[in-house]
Write a structure and sequence with these properties.
With about 325 residues, this protein is α/β, with parallel strands linked by helices. The chain contains ten helices and 14 strands. It is globular.
Length: about 325
């Protein structure tokens, strides 16, 4: 394990020691942010993906020694060899954990971690997801009671036997956004893969009906044009287009209400409505450093014992949803 030399500090200051699980690059990503933040310092880092560390990180005694050296653990985005048992021990020892990106943990595993977190009263926060981006934070200020959400995303087809991992990797953050926007239970889910260019899943269509009668339709795969990654949110008399690939947020509405109570979804989606009848505004996106904002929010959550904006309960929800989608698909298409 690599430890940094630190200056002598005032014993009266409650200085929290941070250990980064990841490469030296992960340390560099956070070094400037931590240097600007009071009462925290990087104690060292440990790369679980380094072949020299495999046995060390899996050894119970060695992992406990590492855990006892820090108060806060940052799990870097690129770190892959993260043992769930070690994460559980961190929580049991009362350590606070900051994870970059959602982890592909099952619903059962996530529930077990949440039980431990509740017992230890520690802070467990996910960061570096679409939810924390300025574009979505801005969109949330305008979106009210969406009735229809359409998600389109280009990605490569899943390799045979890796459908579950593909679903999680490509959809977990987007499903998190959709669930938060709808903010209600799910009534029905249907999912169907399409094989257009061979034996691989070229397009996955997912249809979700919510308890409030709202609907979401997802189209995912390489049949979607390249660079497309967008969320269209239809609500009463307004359409919001969140374009993640271009980092653009637009709001559209009809120029005249007449007797129409809501936007014609199909007409606008296919651009068959007269353009002069539609007013489109480009919304300014709030400028801020998402990584710095989320980390400072994490420290505030620790000090004030607040619930993080993205936590284990959100991973539970989307992990459950991913499992249902996989079950729906594999029940009818066992070859995926």
């Amino acid at each position: 394990m690599n430890f940094c030399k630190v200056a002598k500090i005032d014993k009266h200051i409650d200085m929290k020691k941070i250990i980064v699980l990841g490469s030296s690059k992960s340390v560099d990503d956070f070094a400037s942010i931590i240097a600007e933040t009071k009462n925290v310092e990087i104690s060292g880092y440990f790369d679980p993906d380094d072949s020299m560390n495999y046995d060390m990180f899996g050894d119970f005694i060695k992992s406990i020694e590492i855990i006892q050296r820090g108060d806060i653990f940052i799990i870097g985005e690129k770190a892959e060899n993260i043992d769930l048992g070690v994460v559980s021990q961190m929580i049991k020892f009362g350590k606070h954990i900051f994870v970059e990106g959602f982890r592909n943990w099952s619903l059962f595993e996530t529930e077990q971690l949440e039980k431990l977190r509740i017992e230890s009263q520690t802070t467990f926060q996910f960061s570096n997801t679409l939810f924390g981006l300025p574009i979505f934070t801005t969109a949330q200020q305008f979106v009210k009671k969406p009735r229809f959400i359409k998600l389109e995303k280009h990605c490569q087809a899943p390799k045979p036997g890796y459908f579950e991992q593909w679903i999680f990797q490509q959809m977990v953050q987007e499903l998190d956004l959709i669930c938060r926007l709808m903010d209600c239970g799910i009534r029905h889910i249907s999912a169907r893969p399409m094989f257009l260019f061979g034996e691989h899943t070229d397009l996955l269509n997912i249809h979700i009906e919510f308890d409030n009668d709202a609907i979401c339709h997802v189209s995912l795969g390489r049949a979607i044009p390249e660079s497309i990654h967008s969320l269209k949110i239809y609500q009463h008399e307004k359409l919001f287009h969140v374009d993640f690939s271009q980092n653009q947020l637009t709001e559209s509405r009809l120029a005249s209400r007449n007797d129409q109570l809501s936007l014609d979804i199909s007409a606008i989606a296919h651009q068959s409505t007269d353009p002069s009848e539609i007013i489109t505004l480009e919304r300014s996106i709030m400028p801020y450093d998402a990584r710095k904002m989320e980390f400072r929010n994490f420290l505030e959550n620790i000090d004030k014992k607040l619930t993080p904006l993205t936590n284990l309960s959100h991973l539970q929800s989307v992990a459950d949803l991913c499992e249902v989608i996989c079950e729906k698909v594999k029940r009818r298409y066992q070859t995926v």
